[in-house]
Amino acid sequence: MSRPVEATGLVKRFGELTAVDGIDLHVDHGEIFAFLGPNGAGKSTTVRMLVTLLQPTEGSARVAGFDVVEHAGEVRQAIGVALQDAAIDPMMTGNELLQLQSVLHGLPRSVIRRRGPELLERVGLTAAADRRVGTYSGGMRRRLDLALSLVHEPSVLFLDEPTTGLDPTSRQSLWEEVRRLNDDGTTVFLTTQYLEEADQLAGRLAIIDGGAIVREGAPGPLKAAVGSPTLRLDVAAEQRDAAHEVLGQFGPDRPCREGRVAIGLDGGSSRMADVVRALDEASIAFAHLELDAPSLDDVFADATGRRLEGALE
Amino acid sequence: MTAITGPAHSAGVIGSLAARGMVRIIRRPSLIIPTIVMPVFFLVAFTGSFSGITNIEGYGTDNVFNWMTPYAVLQGVSFAGVGAAGMTGEDIENGFFDRLLLTPGPKLPLMLGAIGYAMIRALIPTTLVLITALVVGGADLNGGALGVLILYVGALGTAAGFACLGLLAIYRLQSMRALLAIQVPIFALTFLSIGQVPLDFQTGWLRRASELNPITPILEMLRQGFLDGVTWESTWPGLVAIAALITVFGVPAWFQLRRMAP
Amino acid sequence: MTATAAAADQRSRLRSALDQAAALSLRSIRTSFRNPVSFVPGLVFPLMLAAVYSAQFQRALGLPGFPEVDSFLDFILPASILQAVAFGATAAGADMALDMENGFFDRLLTSPVSRPSILSARLAGSAVEAAIKFVIILGIFLLFGASVKSSVPGVLVILVVSVLLAMAIGGVSLVLALRTGSQEAVNASFPLVFSVLFVSSAFFPTELMEGWYQTIAENNPITWIIDPVRRLVIEGWSWSDSLSAIGLTFAFAVATISWATFALRRRLATL
């Protein structure tokens, strides 16, 4: 049986702009696969091509065994889609939207009646079912969007930035729901700009930057490959060059935010004492010394030379 | 789960979308106010301002309401048709249209649903204008029940035509601003015809435009019920014109829709 | 503070108030021109309407009771100008409502901009826009054979009336914006303005109307403005016509601008 998602050499150009520049990827049955990258990296464009809303300029993709261009209709029957902006009609109630979605998907009448309340129960929106969706909070809209994408029991679920803009509690409950769906056998393809999300959910992930994949694999091995943990500390501006020199002997520089210095500490935590002694001997004053195990952010930094999220360590 | 597509599915889609449009109006009454108020206002304003005009020979009637009522109905269905396309415009702008595009089966029912909504919507101004004309203006129904039937058939058909124009613009421009862009063509269609004065009164460029305008035969068809009664000669050009409007705007719209979801 | 220093302080405050008003006015004007979608129809529609009506109503000119004109264009010139000006003027309120919706209004309020400047800037924008539209429409009409019997003095009077009317209607739309804060609400007033314009002597002489409709049209202040202006176009110069038209629009403008100032004050008081 073919894989749920397979893409070869996907390219998408909008006039002069190349949004997606040759992407190869695959997702296996029952996996949760994450596409991790900053805004504008090409995540949403790739997803739109995979869910048949956009035609690739070059390359091909097969979803649920069907080519996304030649057999778009069959693809649509097999996938559930919840895109970046919850695709809802604010004037309708949750119940009505689910009903409409069921009719649109050609479900038999007996199923239509049941499916709405079932799904609302599942995403915890039963109480709000008869309220207009326009009155829902951001988190509630995302949950409804998820419910809408599940109406026809798809085998592959595409989630584009499912928790962007949500508060931590909503985020957690959405993660739980995704895990539950995955446990029931749904393959999940999600995109995110939050490394914790990819870390928490994904069995495998690909890091995308500037329209191309820069790293791919399971979170654990990716982080291990970066190797050394990151050592960070605050140093006064006038001593920064001296600090760099001293630290340079302990491992490679790593990017970090203004006012801090960071290196990858070869040899790990056992060398901490040596580092402190070396800084002391050079009379370098420092503060907020931290040693962190490699994170996906480090993987990203290693691959692209930049930090993924706005706030840097 | 495999979807069951086919005529029953398509009918369901069309019905649901048209019904959704009506629910939208009920929940946001402000949407329908222009469609209700403007045509009735036009009727009153045109008959009031231009009441002197039927004194000129050539109108075929003394009562200005007999002349102006179909024109006000036309204005009303243009509002209704274009307003119905507005539902699609909102869907595109808030992303809901993506969901509609991802449904299995043909895409034509999505468009037909909006057109169905337009036609139901058009019932409102047509009826209000007719009632106002009869009650306030003492319009004569010389064509009897048949005249009224022709009025409604023509009105709903023309509404569908205007809806196709609106949908074409919205599918192409992918935003509500498309409706502003088509103001000029709509103005041309409704004003460069025999709405206010008969063809014989017109000269030069205006006459040429009115002769070519499909709205002219449509107005003539609608007006029959108020003037001399219904005849086939005056009816069939109107029906052809309605079919032409729907085809000329609807077919490109459908092609554009299909291009939106390959 | 000494007297001279106080006077200097006054002068500099006045100057900065004027600078602020000028900067904001420029912004209003620039916005309208950058927005051809609303500026162009505001010009095109009155012109198209005039063209269509002139072609249609040639025969109506012969009706008894119709004023003596060479062409319907002369008859409808004031109405076309007023249409263009009126619709552009509602943009003042719509733009302010937009500022209120997207937070720019609050930003203005937290800056040292003087409160009256906010309003005067918008009105100045409407005034300039009206003047420009006046010139364009008059130019096109003249090109197509219309003539203004009262020549240059008459044209100047009509210009003043147009500008004052723009400020008057702008004032009303500003009140609407301040009271509702919603662009949609202000735009909804558009048909109302159109209706008021229609039920007047703008498009057809009130003498040829009948019944209650005629009564309303005759008592519509727009008629009281359009009739003297039209006489300036088709008959020739008249002091009484000029003064009554200018006086009426001036009074209208003063009334609505005061109302707008009051509405602004009320809104600020509730913040």
Description:
- The complex is a heterotrimer of chains A (313), B (262) and C (271).
- By secondary structure, chain A is α/β, with parallel strands linked by helices.
- Chain A folds into two domains: 5-217, Rossmann fold, CATH 3.40.50; 226-304, Alpha-Beta Plaits.
- Chain A has eleven helices and 13 strands.
- In chain A, the strands form three sheets. In chain A, strands 6-7-8-3-9-10 form a six-stranded mixed β-sheet, with helices on both faces. Chain A has a four-stranded antiparallel β-sheet with strand order 2-1-4-5, with helices on one face. Chain A has a three-stranded antiparallel β-sheet with strand order 12-11-13, with helices on one face.
- Chain A is elongated and about 80 Å long.
- The model of chain A has no long low-confidence stretch (mean pLDDT 87).
- Chain B has one domain.
- Chain B has eleven helices and no strands.
- Chain B has helices at residues 7-27, 33-49, 64-94, 96-101, 108-137, 144-173, 177-181, 183-191, 204-212, 215-223, 232-260.
- In chain B, 53% of the residues are buried.
- Chain C is an all-alpha fold and 271 residues long.
- Chain C has one domain.
- Chain C is 80% helix and 0% strand.
- The mean pLDDT of chain C is 83.
- Classes of the chains: A alpha/beta (313), B mainly alpha (262), C mainly alpha (271).
- The B-C interface holds B 30, 33-34, 37-38, 41, 44-45, 47-53, 55-56, 177, 180-181, 183-184, 187-188, 191-192, 196-197, 201-207 and C 37-38, 41, 44-45, 48-49, 51-52, 55-60, 63, 65, 188, 191, 195, 198-199, 203-204, 208-211, 213-214, 217.
